[in-house]
Design a protein that fits this description.
about 210 residues, alpha/beta, binds uracil
Length: about 210
């Protein structure tokens, strides 16, 4: 894995060329952020949808608007957090990414994580949760926090698109965001320890 990138933009441009994900054959372009805010809070979704595919940026469609709304309820602005996806290309007809596609995008995501050194990872939906906490189940574990083997705290959240299809989940997500707010403020006190730990981490490469 190449790791000596000077910027996120450089990292993404490198992996946009050096990846074997077959989804690039049907997608318009890869989808990624190039700014990493200092909060160290990283949200990770599943895969880009149609609007993301057209604009090249994650969570800019309907699910993204709901995510922005949820962030606002806990006094966070979208540009204060980093947002990414398990796979960087839109799957045809917005189907779920398969294991082969997730595996092909893994080195890209791991390199991104090592560059950003997140203080907290918030997983959106089951694909992102499964990457970090394979034994967890979104329907049971949403609104709960975990510690990944690297020491990075992981907070499980439903995917905002799920709440758009199932309006009952909207309230659940709002409540889970309140739990996240509390969790973030508790974690803030421990953040220096996390950062130091992350600096030593090579385990993440095995994810
Ligand atoms: N859903 C995702 O998982 N990611 C996006 O970027 C948009 C919608």
């Amino acid at each position: 894995m190449q790791s000596d990138f000077k910027s996120l933009k450089e990292l993404h441009q490198y992996y946009a060329v050096h990846n074997s994900c077959k989804l690039k054959e049907t997608a318009t372009q890869p989808v990624y952020e190039i700014e990493s805010p200092s909060s160290g809070i990283l949200f990770i979704g599943e895969a880009p949808g149609r609007n993301e595919d057209l604009q090249g940026r994650p969570f800019v469609g309907t699910a993204g608007k709901f995510l922005d709304e949820l962030l606002k309820t806990i006094d966070l602005k979208r540009d204060e957090v980093y947002v990414t996806n398990v796979v960087k290309y839109r799957p045809p007809n917005n189907r779920e990414p398969n294991d082969e596609e997730k595996k092909a995008c893994r080195v890209w995501l791991n390199s991104e994580l090592l560059f950003i050194k997140p203080k907290v990872i918030v997983t959106l939906g089951r694909h992102a949760l499964g990457k970090f906490i394979p034994d967890a189940h979104i329907s049971v574990d949403h609104g709960e926090s975990f510690t990944h083997s690297t020491g990075i705290p992981v907070f499980a959240m439903y995917h905002p698109a799920a709440a758009l299809y199932n309006p009952n989940l909207k309230e659940t997500m709002k409540e889970d965001f309140k739990k996240l707010q509390k969790f973030l403020s508790e974690n803030e006190k421990k953040k220096d320890a996390n950062t130091e730990k992350m600096a030593e981490i090579e385990d993440i490469l095995k994810l």
